[in-house]
């Protein structure tokens, strides 16, 4: 990170730091089977990762009649049936976070994940202390609305020009555009680099160590 103006790094979580794609897809499939909802392809399921859970489920099944609260409960029971571990992080994610923190960057998280899930992940991967704050889809409007970014900037007292958003989905990069904050895309998450490029990130990286 060569730009000396940048003080705040705002990370997406799933698909950027945590390699949780298979677990999320599996729990969405389990939920759909339990509620007798139509089958979705893995690509369809991957494409909604990054949205808030309720929004994601309703996006997948817009014409089906079902109890969304029950769907959320089934999904969460599946997700929390096994605790996340440091091994679930992308390669080099933990060491890179630690090095960025040691270099004096302020780190934050903006995620479509629920607060309970994020706090569980942070605790079990021993990353809690590195992040100054976070916003989840339960606390603010869903991505790509800029509310969670605006709240993080306000809470930590930074200007938009002092921050960069790092994420793996078009929702992350569109949110960055809406918040007038620069972005960096990652190619190893759920959305392809060609789709990310449409939102004009500063760069698209293949490994999180490229932030160093």
How does this structure look, described?
With 212 residues, the chain is of the alpha/beta class. It has two domains: 8-19 and 88-211, Rossmann fold (3-Layer(aba) Sandwich); 21-79, Orthogonal Bundle (DNA polymerase, domain 1). Helices cover 40% and strands 13% of the residues. It has a six-stranded parallel beta sheet, sandwiched between helices. Helix 1 (21-34) packs across helix 4 and helix 3 crosses helix 4 (68-79).
- Provide the gyration radius in Å: 17 Å
Counted beta strands: 6
Supply the number of structural domains: 2
Overall 3D geometry? globular
Mean pLDDT, all residues: 96
The CATH topology annotation of the largest domain reads as: Rossmann fold
- H/I helix tally: 9
Beta percentage is 5-15%
Let me know the CATH homologous superfamily of the largest domain: HAD superfamily/HAD-like
Q: Report the helical percentage.
A: 40-55%
Order of helices and strands: EHHHHHEHEHEHEHE
- Broad structural category: alpha/beta
Query: Order of strands across the widest beta sheet?
Result: 3-2-1-4-5-6
- What's the CATH class label of the largest domain? Alpha Beta
For the termini, the CA-CA separation is 6 Å
